[in-house]
Amino acid sequence: MNSKEYAIVLEEITNNAKAEELDKIILCFAKLLRANFHLYLTDKIIEEFEKIKEEKEEKMKVISAKPLSDFLREKLKQHGKIEEFVNPNIVGGLIIKTKDTLIDGSIKTKLEIMKLKLKQNV
After folding, report:
1. I want to staple 73 with a disulfide (CB 3.0 to 4.6 A). Which of 1, 7, 50, 68 is the partner?
2. Contact at 8 Å (CB) between 47 and 3?
3. Does residue 56 or residue 3 have the better pLDDT?
4. Residue 115 burial (10 A CB sphere; 0-12, 13-18, 19+)
């Protein structure tokens, strides 16, 4: 096995493990590495493991007209990792994107919706 394969196995066996089980799992995993003479792969396994965890962790893309305040950034971080983007064209508000959700609370979109409604009522 190579370091990436070991990292995949480690991620799978620790993914839903309870905190009190982790020490035992890691110890068994280390014994497996020692038995297969693969302890030298430990640093690479950790690198690969961290990459896998990062890829699986969903990030919110937050688009705002100006940089987020520290207060708002911390509130958003309570819901997971965020990637911040500044786009002055949205005028104000926020656009939040995840893998399968889009929340558009931008002033630009609200103005465009209002404009369409006004055209329909003319």
Report:
1. 68
2. yes
3. 3
4. exposed
